[in-house]
Amino acid sequence: MARRGEKLIVAAAVLLLGLAPASAQEGPDRVDSIRDIFARMRTCWKPPPASRAHPIDITVIVSFNRDGEIMGHPRITYESAGATDNDRLQYRIAVMEALQRCTPMPFTETMAGASAGRPFAIQFRSRKSSPQATERKA
């Protein structure tokens, strides 16, 4: 009878040890939802100073692999109307720097599987209002 009890204890210990690494991957800094992706990108966003470029809104489409690294090439799909060439250049550089600061994305195992290869349209807003009627596609 004691032999059976020892086996149960060993089995329980193995199960607990097997779960420890997975729970270590789930933490406050881990990205576990689409909302977390956007929130993390906001923390990495540093728009250029007003002395270098006028504030604009810009949107980039990017995909990640399971390891949270960028797949392919991010693509700018929107820039505010009326932006100068210099404004667009400065903001495109700022977007790429934000992507570099935030990647690899620290996905949880669940989020890694759910997001791998899917495109995300990430908006970076620098203007106080974003009139939809004057959009300029990139």
What does this structure look like?
This protein is α+β, with helices and mostly antiparallel strands and 138 residues long. It has helices at residues 2-25, 34-44, 85-102, 109-115, and strands spanning 58-64, 70-79, 119-124, 136-137. The chain has one domain (29-137): 2-Layer Sandwich (Fusion Protein Consisting Of Minor Coat Protein, Glycine Rich Linker, Tola, And A His Tag, Chain: A, Domain 2). Strands 3-1-2-4 form a 4-stranded antiparallel β-sheet, covered by helices on one side. Helix 2 (34-44) packs across helix 3. It starts with a helix and ends with a strand. Residues 8-25 and 130-134 have low confidence and may be disordered.
CATH topology: Fusion Protein Consisting Of Minor Coat Protein, Glycine Rich Linker, Tola, And A His Tag, Chain: A, Domain 2
Strand content: 15-25%
Mean pLDDT: 82
- Number of domain units: 1
Say how many strands there are. 4
| Largest beta-sheet details | 4 strands, antiparallel
Q: How many helices in DSSP terms?
A: 4
Low-pLDDT segments, ≥5 res: 8-25, 130-134
What overall geometry do the principal axes of the alpha carbons give? elongated
What is the end-to-end distance?
A: 74 Å
